[in-house]
Amino acid sequence: xxxxxxxxxxxxxxxxxxxxxxxxxxxxxxxxxxxxxxxxxxxxxxxxxxxxxxxxxxxxxxxxxxxxxxxxxxx
Length: 75
Prior knowledge:
- InterPro entries: C-type_lectin-like, C-type_lectin-like/link_sf, C-type_lectin/snaclec_domain, C-type_lectin_CS, CTDL_fold.
- Keywords: Disulfide bond, Receptor.
- This protein is 0% helix and 19% strand.
- The chain has no helices and 4 strands.
- The radius of gyration is 15 Å and the shape is globular.
């Protein structure tokens, strides 16, 4: 496996405003923005290869956890 070199930062990002923006979000135009980790946003989960199960789409608010069979990506 090779390191990922793709970046898609919005203009003037990441800027680590006030030295407090250590997390990232994908904004509606698809670009990345750094923000404070205390700001609540949706999240992305990574699924292990070979562990296939149906994914059910939900409209519930993010809970901060991943569904069974998934695990959260490290920061």
